[in-house]
Amino acid sequence: MAAVKKVLIAATVAAIAAFFGHAFLKINRLSLASREMPVKHLKCHYLPNIEYGAEDITVLKDGLAFLSTGLHDYLDMPSFSNEPGKMYVLDLLHPKPTPVELQIKGELDLSTFNPHGISVYTDEAGETHHGFKA
Fold first, then answer.
1. Which residue in 19, 32, 36, 95 is a FRET match for 128, CA 20 to 30 A apart?
2. Is the pLDDT higher at 87 or at 16?
3. 9: part of which helix (H) or strand (E)?
4. Which PANTHER family does the record associate with it (predicted)?
């Protein structure tokens, strides 16, 4: 009888440990505590003229992506380039997408352009896109 009791207690402890272990792993996965990405065969391409990365990207329904680069002196984060910021457009549906620099119009001092965020407004006809930077 004592042996059966020990087996039941061991089985109960094992079941409780398995339950809490499973719950811990589930919470860990949901909270994104481990941000390791599984290795997949991605179709990544080097984008010329974007040496220091894009600060922000906004993708439209038609596959066009707007990129801002050149963020400086923002929240004491390190800056890897002293070049002024730029805006690019990229056609993600093209087999070999190449960023095209957008010409910024208006009374903006381009030597101090420091974009950090993109918003795009598309008119109701869907023909005109207006970009805004924060």
1. 95
2. 16
3. helix 2-30
4. PARAOXONASE (PTHR11799), PARAOXONASE-RELATED (PTHR11799:SF12)
